[in-house]
Amino acid sequence: GKTVRVLNISAGGIAFQNAGFSPFDSDFIKFTLDIPNFSGDATFFAGLRILKISDSGICHCIFEQCSLDQHELIHKYVLEMQKNDLAH
After folding, report:
1. Distance between CA atoms of 52 and 85, rounded to whole angstroms?
2. CB burial string 61-79: b at 16+ within 10 A, e below
């Protein structure tokens, strides 16, 4: 039930500033990705588990129980962001 600010998204998980979580906490997340050149539904839904919380308070997490469609969506997002970074 908490809202967090995502710092980084990868194909395997996300990182965000800790908001009172503990290592190995898990929950389901849902957010909408802003994917350039994509006209489909960009809503991402998957399980999330915190693997580590760094000394600076960053939660490093992996996606769990991620369907094939959701897995492909996050890969599409990462690819488009990489292409955007290379272009600039």
Report:
1. 27
2. bbbeebeeeeeebbebbbe
Sorting pLDDT into bands at 50, 70 and 90, what band is 74? very high
- Between the alpha carbon of residue 49 and those of residues 7, 9, 56, the distances in Å are 16, 14, 18
Q: Do 12 and 63 meet the contact criterion of CB atoms below 8 Å apart?
A: yes
Contact 46, 28 (CB under 8 A): yes
Using DSSP, state whether 41 is helix, strand or coil: coil
pLDDT tens digits for range 1-59 = 788 989 999 999 999 999 999 999 999 999 999 998 899 999 999 999 999 999 999 99
Q: Tokens standing for 15? A: 């990182």
